[in-house]
Amino acid sequence: MSVAASTSPAARSIVPVALGDRAYDIHIGAGLIAGAGPLIQAVVPGRPLVVLTDSNVADRHLAPLMASLAASGAKVLEPIIVPAGEASKDMERLGEVMDALLARGIERKTVLVALGGGVVGDLGGFAAAIALRGLDFIQVPTTLLSQVDSSVGGKTGINSRHGKNLIGAFHQPRLVLADTVSLDTLPRREVLAGYAEVVKYGLIDNPGFFTWLEANGQGVVDGDPALRAEAIRVSCLAKAGIVAQDEKEGGLRELLNLGHTFGHALEAEAGYGGELLHGEAVSIGMVMAFDLSVRMGLCPAADAARARAHLAAVGLPVDARHLGGGTWTAETLAAHMAKDKKVKDGRVTFILARGIGQSFRCADVRLDDVRDVLAASLAGHAS
Fold first, then answer.
1. Are residues 178 and 286 in the same domain?
2. Which residue segment(s) compose the domain that 144 sits in?
């Protein structure tokens, strides 16, 4: 997955996800929402479509998408709109979406189009996986995080009071349309949250990309169109390569969880009301993973410091001290980790690092070391 970034991408690019008879393309570029109709018709010609989106995205992007679908001659059912925010990824909202789908008279040839960020993509993908025992679906991600991560690879699901994404299914989309113009409407905080997932690909196994991000990451965050398109392209190439080799997370794909074991524990403790965004939790979690690697004698301290410095420089959080407080404890966060979906035989699998771009799976981690790293982050300094 070693991919060198360039600074002059084509206006649009296509990244294939090679999964045999379930292969699909990721289209990246400007204007893809307004031009979605012909692209979707080329993949699922003549089939009924129903769009799922959230209240924020609907105001900005639903009308041009619906117009393009109608102009292409597609039969488009009444769209389904859910409230914006992580709280919509729960069993109650899933039930409402299922009822709405069935009320529209869907058939097995109906295609669900998920227009929105990671919440809509995860919720819509899971609804498609279980409605009538499986509908095709298409991802139209509108956030940086969903364009570089959650829309690609077929992981779908909802949250439980026991933890994040514990209820779900692998269900690959038929097409992904990542319209870079949609990122211009995002609050800066949302862009930063997505950027954490971009950095992840450099830290996993592409040190050249991480070096490119050190030089160009601020431009990506600030909205340079060419830099954004290139960061998305390289990120999608990275994820597509891993998914093609390990679709259902039998080993290699677990590397994509760098920072997520820690991050999901932070999200569970914060709740899902917006106090902590997923990408913010991943940023803190990646720093914790590098700190744990240093504590275990696996990673040079200089590499951990470099990862922390870059994330902090663009404006991402790098420790847990701003998350409220004194009521948070290392023990509480460790308890959340014990419920992580990656637990095997009672042991938590961590993604650690031997350096920048040298991540690996590790199930042999002392709980005392984990608690020390958590405590240090809660105190606002490196372990």
1. no
2. 12-185
Q: Which of 89, 174, 200, 260 is catalytic?
A: 260
| Catalytic residue (choose from 164, 228, 264, 336) | 264
User: One of 190, 197, 254, 280 is an active-site residue; which one?
Assistant: 197
**The two three-digit tokens of residue 7, written as one number:** 């600074």
The reply to whether 278 belongs to the active site is yes
266: CATH: 1.20.1090.10
| Residue 354: active-site member | no
Annotation marks residue 260 as catalytic? yes
Could you list the mean pLDDT of each consecutive 10-residue stretch along the chain, which spans 383 residues? Answer: 42 93 97 98 98 97 98 97 95 98 98 98 98 98 97 96 91 98 96 98 98 98 97 98 93 94 91 88 97 98 98 96 73 85 74 98 92 91 69
CA 275, CA 378: separation in Å to the nearest integer?
Answer: 16
| 347 catalytically annotated | no
Phi-psi region for residue 45, left (φ > 0), alpha (ψ -120 to 50) or beta?
Answer: beta
Annotation says 275 is catalytic: no
Q: Which two tokens stand for residue 159?
A: 């949250």
239 part of the active site: yes
Neighbours of 243 (CB within 10 A): 23
Q: How many domains does the chain have?
A: 2
Do the domain assignments include residue 227?
Answer: no
159 is catalytic: no
Does 177 share its domain with 40? yes
Q: Is residue 173 part of a domain?
A: yes
